Amino acid sequence: PLRVAVVCSSNQNRSMEAHNILSKRGFSVRSFGTGTHVKLPGPAPDKPNVYDFKTTYDQMYNDLLRKDKELYTQNGILHMLDRNKRIKPRPERFQNCKDLFDLILTCEERVYDQVVEDLNSREQETCQPVHVVNVDIQDNHEEATLGAFLICELCQCIQHTEDMENEIDELLQEFEEKSGRTFLHTVCFY
Question: Tell me, what DSSP letter sits at residue 93?
């Protein structure tokens, strides 16, 4: 089975929506963020709620519930955290994970660059290839859902290939034409 990782900045919205859908479809999936901290929208654009990656989704939920139940209910953040804590206890940082994956999907170009940079800075041990593919997804609830279904469809197609190494480029090209999005793709080695 394909070992999949989905990565966004804070391991909250985009990567967790995809994690949710992929795990419901039976994929072996983990999700991560690449940021130094976990950031969630606050009362104003310049006042985000900032947490450490060690903070559980439950702790964030209770913190925001205490700060302003109405605001965080209305903007969907409490609902999102509630979903997240059913999937896993806390956000995880990609740079701290040493597990091997076959396919890593990132949700924006900056995150893609951080993932590729991290993989390339590691000592190569097994020379096992990992495909890193970026699917640009805007960081809002609606786009995260649409992006997650696209990621899921992509994973299903890749899983059905006879030879991922030779077929992935063609597959991504088909997906680009079908979805009207461009995908960055590179191969790194463990």
Answer: B
